[in-house]
Amino acid sequence: MAxxxxxxxxxxxxxxxxxxxxxxxxNVKNLTLDLSRHIRSLGFPEGSGMGVFFAIGVxxxxxxxxxSFSFYFEANYPLPNKKNSSEYFEKRSLDRTLxxxxxxxxxxxxxxxxxxxxxxxxxxVAESQITGNGLVGDLLHILFTPSxxxxxxxxxxxxxxxxxTDCKYHYRECxxxxxxxxxxxK
Length: 186
Known about the structure:
Blueprint: H1 2-34, E1 49-60, E2 67-78, H2 96-109, H3 114-127, H4 134-144, H5 156-163, H6 167-170, H7 178-182
Antiparallel strand pairs: 1-2
Helix pairs in contact: 2-3, 3-5
């Protein structure tokens, strides 16, 4: 009895299933030729927006007080309405030039020299071996090591900053170290 069940099972596996798959695949192929799909979009009320907020807080050691030093990053995006929904399907990308401009403006809005602090950060990331520190380390390496990817036509001072040593001395006009804020870089 057990042998008969085994034979039926083998029959189904080797004979029935391959034919069933073949017929099913052929039917699906024929159906997909007749189908077409329109690009769909979702319209929001005019003036709607979405925001992303990110903050890095570093505790400051002050006796008997709870104090932290924070950097806030905020991005606001308008949501598409029916009138302009086709604009949102265009290809967009974030390149280093735009990322560096954003960081420079954030440094400047905090009262620091934007370009010099950016160059110091590039120098420190290149000087320290930040790879192998998880996702954040990999992201910092990708963002602040321009030589690790294709040439983007960045200014010469950025590639010079990547090959500079003694970052604290060369970029002493920048009083803070972005890496010191999130790690124990020395």
